[in-house]
Design brief:
The chain has 122 residues and is an alpha+beta fold. It has five helices and six strands; from the N terminus they run ββαββααααββ.
Length: 122
């Protein structure tokens, strides 16, 4: 399966685990959040989809935060957002649930992604 023209297995190998600090304004106060690069990218994608600024989304998260750190609340929100967006039909199309190697069925222009398999080593 390919994402963004690259095999999904390649994407997992390049997960950005280094923390990046960025400033956000929440309730009129500037604060910094330290999140992984991929977490920042996911948050920015949510902002684009919802037509909101990073500050507005972080403020919404802050209003709902209970007994967790701000960064943990942001990560939990992102996970919840994308889990809610995942549909059963999407999982079926992606071949999830079979625990077998999955071949991409999406037409791709990059030959490196054609017939890419994902293997799960248990």
């Amino acid at each position: 399966m390919c994402v963004g023209g690259k095999p999904l297995s390649h994407r997992f190998q390049n997960i950005q685990s280094r923390l990046q600090s960025r400033n956000v304004t929440i309730r009129g106060h500037r604060t910094s959040l330290r999140l992984e690069g991929d977490v920042w990218s996911a948050l920015e994608e949510i902002c684009i989809r919802e037509n909101k600024s990073v500050h507005a989304v972080c403020e919404l998260i802050e209003e709902r935060r209970v007994r967790s750190s701000r960064t943990a609340a942001v990560r939990a929100y992102i996970l919840t957002y994308f889990r809610a967006a995942a549909s059963e039909s999407g999982h079926v199309q992606a071949g999830h649930g079979s625990m077998k190697p999955v071949k991409s069925q999406t037409p791709v222009s990059d030959p490196a992604c054609a017939n890419t398999e994902i293997r799960v080593n248990l």
